[in-house]
Amino acid sequence: MSDVLTKKEVLHVAELARIKLTEKEVEKYQKELKELLSDVEKINDADNYDDDILIACWEDNTKLREDKPGEMLSPKEVLKNVPRHSGNYIEVPVVISDGEGA
Amino acid sequence: MKYLNKDIKEINKLLKEKKIKPIDLVEEAFDNIEKNKDLNAYITLNKEEAIKRAKELENEEVDNILFGLPIAIKDNIVTEDLKTTCASHILDNFIPIYDATVVKKIKEKNMIIIGKTNMDEFAMGSSSRTSYFSAPHNPWNKNKISGGSSGGSATTIAARDVLFALGSDTGGSIRQPASYTGIVGMKPTYGRVSRFGLVAFASSLDQIGPMTRNVYENALLLNAIVGKDEKDLTSANKDDEDFTRLIGKDIKKMKIAVPNFFMSEIVNDEIRNKVKETIKVLEKNDVKVDYIDVKYIDNAVTLYQIIAMGEASSNLARFDGIRYGHSYENPKNIDDLYLSTRSEGFGEEVKRRIMVGSYLLSGENAKVYYNKALSIRDDMRKELKKVFDKYDFIIGPTTTTTAYNLDDPMDDPRKSFMDDVLVIPVNMAGLPGLNIPIGFDSNNMPIGMQIIGNSFEEAKIYQLASFNIYLQ
Questions:
Q1: What is the rounded distance in angstroms from the CA atom of residue B252 to the CA atom of residue B239?
Q2: Which CATH code is given to the segment(s) B1-472?
Q3: Which of A50, B187, B199, B422 has the highest CB neighbour count under 10 A?
């Protein structure tokens, strides 16, 4: 097994994480990601004795709260940290480009 | 005149008798912080607001022991109108619009928030060196790390700037820096403290906890922050209790287990010997100590890598440059906005972890890695729980070495996980764990010991921790 990921593999992983990498970063992560991914392979060496899973250590408290209206934030508060907005609308770049059809 | 170096009961008495005012304590705290500026413990100071609050409190009754005392908050816990950055460029302009539940609670106790402490970016790291604002320095030796991720909180307590700080612990991030800086740090039982307003890293592991100069004050701060919270469905429904109630009580006949893994050759000799000395003193005092094997604890780092990186990749998907935080200036389209914002905003360690995490959760991998990790995690918890059928505590060293140099290389992506090899099992099993200082190594750097208790037995942990051998 190679001790680095291919550039294509790194770019695939970066795409999953929605991160753009420079050429230099790709090279750096080829080795580093491989190291971490080989580490997690060790999971296959551990035997487990039953198939129960533990998502989190909740104890007697997994009750959902009642579905009723509570306190709400005002649009002014919500928009306080929004980088671009116009009135009460949050602005985003064009999502559907011209001519490509739906 | 100095007050913050006095006993907390004495400070409280002076406040009650109006011999001092909260403003005296606040001014003293800011003087200390100024004097220790080069330690880089803080990202943001809350000076104006803290002074204003201290003056308001002059007209209020001193109604509890924490009244008027300054407290530092780790910068991943949101504070209304006070910048909260998670030590990341992506949030370096973020002003929260609400208080975390723990912040609300300490404000109800009339504590005064002095500032937001430095940390690893999004709590990902073990030395606080992944901070966008550069690392804090260890007060015992400024060339050394303070540990992480709650490195700033540990630093400000060890430097005695203030008496109280909050940290967060996902895989050792309270206990490990507490060990490196010689202070007391508690990771409470999962669910004991509300996570509402703690910026999520790995939601099934994260827990907020107190960091202090001694055990008694640690228990006092835990008293203030616990409780069921409607806003966090993983918070536990437990009655209020006084965590100081067993402090000073006899520990004779108690039974302690020491996992052989905790005393294996991964731990350096000086630390092992110091822990052995402590064990001898306990034995002399009629405490039974057994060395045992605990299945799966040596798998904890691998489980952590899978679970924590997986959950982090999902939690950090919210940083999109649209709703809050840093946003790329001139995006060509929506994808460019996401990709460029995240590439500019996140540091190296965070990028590495969310890339690995996204991969581990993608397609079939979720079954091969994440589900398998959750399954072994369950087995590990059962094994640890079994230990508590026979023993009151598990103890061992908190770290494998003492604090290392700030300029040690950062080119090994495994290092930050291995620094936490002894503290991660506690998070996996949701158990409470406490670091207490037990001495120094030959370079005069603090050595810490961890005390692990059964779920919701924090009060009992403080009982063992306060046993006077540790105070010598």
A1: 28
A2: 3.90.1300.10
A3: B187
